[in-house]
Amino acid sequence: MHLMSIRIFLVIIILIIFCSSPLDAAAERRTALVIGNSAYSSGPLKNPVNDATDIAAVLKKLGFKVILKTNASKKDMGKAIDNFGKQLKGKDAGLFYYAGHGVQVNGMNYLIPIGSEINEDSDVEYEAIDAGRILAAMNNARSKINIVILDACRDNPYTKSFRSATRGLAIVSKAPTGTIISYSTSPGDVALDGKGRNSPYTSALLQYMEEPGLGIEQMFKKVRASIIKQTGGKQTPWELSSLHGDFYFVVGTLNKGAVVSDNIADEKKKLEEKQSQLQAVKEEQRQVEVDKQKLAMVAPPIILGPKETRRYGRFIAYSNGTVLDTRTNLMWADKDNYTGISWQDAKKYCETYRGGGYTDWRMPTLDELESLFESGTIGINGYNITRLIELSNCCPWASASSEGAYFRFDGGGRGWTKRPFFTRAYRALPVRSFNMKTDVTMARHLFASPVSELKRDGNFIAYHDGTVLDTSTTLMWAAKDNGYNINWQDAKKYCETYRGGGYTDWRMPTQHELAGLYDRSKTYKSTRGYDVHLTELIRITGIAPWASDTRDSYAALFSFDGGDRNWYHQSYADYSRALPVRSVNSVNIEAPKEVIAKIPIKEEIKSDGRFIAYSDGTVMDTKTGLMWAARDNGSTINWQHAKYYCENYRGGNYTDWRMPTLDELAGLFDESKTNRHGNHVNDLIDIPNWYVWSSETRGSEAAYFTFGYGNRSWYPKSNDTSVRAIPVRSGK
C-alpha cells in the first residue's frame, strides 16, 4: 500500500507539470505526417509543396511533432509512413495530411508518388501508395484520435489511359474507431489546385485550424462553408467520422492543456497493468534461461528419396516437385511461382528456391527456356510446354546480359522489356544443372542417410538442405525468407508451394510462431540494413514476415526489429516478407540418431451412414470411395486458382488431391438433406456457397455445380465473384 501511495503521488506531480505547460504536453502527445507532391512528370501541380509546408508550420505551432516530406518518391513515402506509425505509438492524436495527385482504382484510393511510371490502371497497385496503409499504421499505433486530411482529389492525369476512368477518390469503407477522414471535395469529384500560393481547401484549413476553442468537426464545417462560397458550389469538402470524443487544435481557456482527459484513476490502472506485464516478462525470461540449459539431443530429419511419379517423352517427374529433362540434363521446378513478379524478384526467387532439397537453383537462360518449347504440345493452361511443368502464365523471365529477357510459351519467341520491374504476365521458373556423377553423390548423401548438420545456435540446428529446426518448439523453418517485398496473398502462396528440404507441407506461420523466434539478446543486420533480433541461422532480408492470422482485409505481421505484432492491409508489400514453416510432428529424444515423424492417428469423429468424417479434416464417401475435404476453400475464387488450390491441398497429409468432376459433385447432392447454409448436401462437408467449380472445361469456360438446386452450368474461367473450390481424392 505504501508503494502504491508513492506511485499515485508521482502521477499527481506529473499531471501538475503537464497541465502547467499545455503546449509542451501536446507536443509530446501529437504526431503528424505531412506530404506534398508537385513535381509530377505527367500533370505537374503548382500548390501541393506550398500547401504541405504551410500546414506543417501551423501544426508545429499547435504542438504537433511533424514529419514533413515534399516531392517524395514511393520509397520515401513508404519509409515516412512506417516512421510515422512508430512515432505515433502511445500518443493521443495522429494526423496525416497529403496534397498531390490521388486516384481511385476498383474502389481503392492510391496516393501518387513522384517518379511513378503509370501507363494504365493495372500499374497503380505497384507504382503508388495504397491510402489504406496510412489507416493501418494508425490502427497499429492504437492512437486515441486519428485525423486524415486528403487534398488529393485534383483531376486524374491518367484518366485517358485507364480502363475505368473514375474521377476523384472513393469513400473509405473501413477505418480505425476514433478516426475522421476529410476529403477536399465530395467522393468522385475533383478539387481545384488554386491560383494563389495554396489550394482553396488548404487556405481554408490554415484559416480555421488556429481558432481557439473550435472543435475539429465544427472546424471542418466552417471549411466546407468557406469552400462552397469561394467556388460557387463547384467544390464541396466531405468528411467521414467515427470520433467518439472532442478534439481541439487550439483549446479554449477552460479546456486548456486537455486533448484527451486522463484522470488519476486511469493512471493508477495503467501503472498496475505495467507492473503485471513486467512480472510476466520476468517469468518468461526465467523460463527461457531454463530452456537454454536443456541439451538439444535432437538429430537431423531423414529425407526419403524422391520417387518417379510420371514420364512424358524425355521428361521425368519426381515426388519432390522436380522434373528432369533427360535430353539436356536440366532439372526444373514442376511449376512456376504462380504470381506476377518483376525480373529482379524472379532472380531472387529462383536462387533461394529449395525444391527437392537442392540449393543450387538459378534463373534459366533464354536457350534453356527455349529448349522446353514444344510447338506441337499443349500443356497445362494451354501453353506449349510439357504437361509435367505447369506455367500459370505465358512468359518466364530469363537470365541475360541485361535485365528484362523472357521467353513466350504461347507460340514461341524471345522477348525483352525496358520495364523489368513490371510483373503482369511474367513468372519465375527455377532450373538447375543435373550432373549424374555429382547428383548421385548428393542423392546418396540426401536420401541414404540423415541430412548433415551445418551449425547450431542454442535450440536451433541448421542443416545443409536449407532448413532450420527449433528443438524447443519442434518447428522447422526455411533458412531464409523469400528475399523481396510481397503482399499477404502472394506470401501465403509462396509458403504453401515452398519445397525446401524436399518437404511438401510448408505453410505460413502464425504470428505467435514468429514471435517465438524473437530474441532481443541476438542481433544481426538484415540486407535492408535493419537490426533484427533472432538466431543468425534464419536470415531475414526485410523486417517483418507475414503471418497467417487475418481479420477482414487485414493480416498480421511480426517485426523483428522491435518485436511488434502489427496488422496491415493484405495488399501491403513494403518491407514485408514470406518465411515458410512446417511442423515436425514428434521428436524421439531417446533416439538421437534420427527424428521419428509419426503419422497422426486418424480418428472417426462422426458418421451419417454413408459419409464418415475424420479428425484430420477429411470425409470419406463409402458409396463412391471418394475422399473429400471437410470444407471448401472459404472464399470465392476463379477457376485457375481453384484448380491450383485443389492440387496443392494437403489435408490429411495426402498429396494427390485434385479438382472434382461434375458427376462427382452431383454425387454429393441430396435433396433430402439441407445443411445449415441451405444447401442440399450432408452436414459433414461444409459447403456454405451454392456454386462449386468442377474440372470440366470448354474453351474459356469451366463447369460448376449448384448445391441449391442441383443444376450444372458454365462460367468464364476468370469469374471470381460467386464460385468456390473443394478438393477431392480417390480414397480407395
Protein architecture, described:
The protein has 732 residues and is α+β, with helices and mostly antiparallel strands. The chain has five domains: 18-262, Rossmann fold; 266-293; 308-438, Mannose-Binding Protein A, Chain A (Roll), CATH 3.10.100; 451-583, Mannose-Binding Protein A, Chain A; 604-730, Mannose-Binding Protein A, Chain A. It has 16 helices and 38 strands. The strands form nine sheets. Strands 2-1-3-7-8-9 form a six-stranded mixed β-sheet, sandwiched between helices. The chain has a five-stranded antiparallel β-sheet with strand order 10-11-12-13-18, with no helix packed on it. β4 and β5 form a beta hairpin. α3 runs parallel beside α7 (200-208), α4 packs parallel to α6 (132-141) and α7 packs across α8 (216-231). The model is unreliable at 1-28, 253-263, 292-304, 440-450 and 586-601 (pLDDT under 50).
CATH fold-type name of the largest domain: Rossmann fold
* Separate helix tally: 16
Structural class: alpha+beta
Number of strands: 38
- The CATH architecture of the largest domain can be given as 3-Layer(aba) Sandwich
Gyration radius from CA atoms, angstroms: 29 Å
Give the biggest beta sheet.
Answer: 6 strands, mixed
State the helicity in percent bands.
10-25%
Number of domains: 5
Strand content: 15-25%
Which CATH C-level class of the largest domain is it?
A: Alpha Beta
Which of globular, elongated, flat, extended, rod-shaped describes the shape? globular
Which strand order does the major sheet show? 2-1-3-7-8-9
